[in-house]
Amino acid sequence: MRMKRFLSGDEAFAEGVRLARPQVISAYPITPQTVVVERLSEMVEEGLLKAEYVHVESEHSALSCAMGASATGARTFTATSSQGLLYMAEVLTYAAGGRFPIVMMNANRATALPWNIYGDQRDSLALLDHGWIQAYAENNQEALDLALMAYAVAEDPAVLTPFMVNLDGFALTHTYETVDVPAEEDADAFLPPYQATNCFDFEHPKNIGYSAGPDYNRYFKYYEHRDMLGAFEAIDRVEARFAECFGRAYAGPVEAVSCDDAEAILVTLGSIAGLARESVARLREQGKRVGLLRIRYMRPFPAKLIAEALAGAAAVGVLEKDISFGAEGTVFTNVNSALQQAGCTTPTFNFIGGLGGDDITSAQMDAMFDALLDSVGERGRDDAAAGRSCDDASTGQGAGLGRVSFLGIDFPVASQSACGYDCEEGAR
User: Fold this and answer.
1) 1 band by pLDDT with thresholds 50, 70 and 90
2) 229 and 302 in one domain?
């Protein structure tokens, strides 16, 4: 029976997995994901979910177990976070290359050192190139819904690619919201039992743990890339069917909010989009032409959709809970690539925030939009389209810091050593 429940993001996702009816669950705990596998263990124990629940000794084993089960034709699930995801990295490429449609929930969490259990997105964004579809939920309802849709996309015969659903640690995983939990019969109608074709078959043997030299490896990688791109069509089909079944519509790989006439647009992903929505609405009431572009899928990367949404802006900011040290934010790199490929010369700015669970405030959000608008006013619309000069971008040490801003950092970057001490004064 369909019902409203007050659930954390972890609990909501576990409910979505229950409705998807995986046959094998491989579980290893790690904060802030642990609640997901705990709830699933309770569901199995209570008979609410008929599945083989496998306790494993590590995150590496958790994904290895899921891959082995998928190779037998089972619908599988696992979950992890942060250092656990990094420990899985070797197996991520095996699962993707083997075309096993595993669904995994990742609770986005800071990576060490320093040791930190709070949320940022450095873990999943560091592994974009490992062949997994990656989606990012904004709220707990979307988390539950993505649990169902992920299986439908991953198991599509034209896709057959593992799927990682990312939830912001603590901001979603441990925050409670009212969530619409679908009835089992409706979920079954939306997601029928998995009919595996890429699996062991003793009547028709095939090589699954194959090797391929230079002459053939390229073909496997070509098809892996082709079918990842093919996930765009599968996402559209699955979301259309989901809206018909449950009455909740999603916008596809990106969601544009008030972007049509916006001078300044902020790009982000994950739960922080909720705060950005509030800021856009508030600044719009003040007559400021601002917009929000929420990226829902980082892989496959919706470059064309992003460029189309941002083409009319005079300034674009990318807010992300991530940094590629010595370069810029990973999302920023991808967004700039999309704009460059489309021939867009819109100037872009990178805002790094939320690292280690650091709070991003409404005042900071408004300030980011104001900074983008100020950059337009200072240069004028014509100058804005031209972007920064080569001299501005090639200043040697600290190059690019004019476009890459760490929220809340109020000390001169050049005066700080790597250890965090003022080298001249010897004080922290």
Assistant:
1) confident
2) no
